[in-house]
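Exercise 7 asks you to align residues with C-alpha cells for two separate proteins.
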Amino acid sequence: MRAYYFDNLPGDQRLLHDYVPSRPVSKETLDKLNVKYWIIPVDGHEPKVDEIAKERGYKNRDLINVTKEGLGELYEEKIKTFFQEHLHEDEEIRYILSGSGFFDVRESPSDEWIRLLVEPGDLLVIPAGIYHRFTLDEKNQIKAIRLFQDEPKWVPHNRSVETDTNPHRIQYLKAIGVGA
C-alpha cells in the first residue's frame, strides 16, 4: 500500500492527486491515526486473513465487486456515495483481491487528506470514527473481501455538525490524543 498526502487540486478523483514532489506518509503516521494495514499475497491469503479476522473479532464477510458490470445501474450512484466524506460507527476492513483504488482518510488535527492506494494483497483497517472516502482509480475495478464484526452493514454518516459530535467520532479523537 502506498500512502501520501492528497494534493487537493481539482480534477478527476480517480487520478493519483500526488504532490510534486510527493509527500509520502509513514507507517508511524498511519499508526498514530489507528489506520492499520497488512500486505498478504493473494495466492494462499485465506489463512492469514482468517487469523487477522479472528484476532479483531470479525465473524462475517462478503465480497464486493465494484465495476460498471458488477453494480449495473447503481454504479454511478455508488461511486458518488463512496467518495462523499463520511465516517462509520464500526471499523471498515477490506482485503483487495483484484483491481485497485484509493481510500482517503482525514488526518487529525491537520484535517489534511491522506491518500492510500490499495492493490491486490492489501488488507486495510480504517477505524470507526475517522473521516474518510473511497474511489476507484482509472482502471474502474476493484474486488474486495469486506469483513464485519457482526451482521454485514455499511452505514455511512456524511460529515456534518452532527457527525463531529458523534460518540464514535469523539471516542476516535480521544484514542489518537486529539481533543478533549
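Second protein for Exercise 7:
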Amino acid sequence: MHFLVLRSHALNKMSRKVVELFYDVVSPYSWLGFEVLCRYRNVWNMELKLRPAFLGGVMHESGNRPPGMVPNKGLYMVKDLNRLASFMNVPLRHPSDPFEVMFNKGSLAAMRFITAVAEKEKDGYHLVENVSRELWKRIWSTDQDICEPASLSEAGLKAGLSSSEVEELLRLAKSQPIKDKLKQTTHEALEYKAFGFPLIVCHVGGKPQVFFGSDRFELMAHSIGEKWLGPEPNKPTSHL
C-alpha cells in the first residue's frame, strides 16, 4: 500500500504541467495574475515557476508602448484595474503619481533584488513570492518607494528575511552575475515573443503555450486540461 501511494505521488509529479510566470512589480496586471496563479498552485496539477524579469527591457525590445502613453488607454486602465482588483480580491490602489512611479523611477533595482532572492533561494519560490508581493504592495497599494535600498530592505524584512540576509541580498543585487541573470530571464521572455507582462507560459505535451495578461485564465485552464473556478478557487462562491 505504501509503495502504491509513493508511486501515485511520483506519477502525479511527473504529469504536472510546468507554468512559468514572467513578471515585473511595476506592472499592476502582473500582480493580479501572480495572486491568481499562486492561489491555483495547489488546485491545478501544475508546477508554478516565478520568473522575475524587467518589463522596461521587454517594452523596448518589442517596440511596444505603455498604455499610459496613450491617453484613452490610460483612462481605461484606471477603471479596468479598479474593477479587476475588486473582482480578484487584491488590495490594489493607484499611486498618487503613476507616471513618476512607472516611468521616471521604474523597477530595475527592485527586479535585481528579487532576482538576487531567487538566486539565493534555489529550492522553491517561497521567499521570491513573499518579497515580490511586499514590493507590489509598496508600489500598488500603499504608494511607497521601491527603488531605494531602504525601501528594498523594508520589503525584505516584511517578507520574512533577517537583517543580515537583506544586507547580503542588497550587495548581491548590485553584482554583475545578478544583472546578467535578470537580462537573461528578460531575454527568455522575449524569445516567447513577449511584448508586455504578465506573460504566462504553459508547457503542455512538450510545447509551450503563451498567454498575455491577467484575463486569460479560463482559456488557459481549457488549454492545460484544468477547471477555472474563478479568481478565488477555494471560495465556495467562486464563479464557475
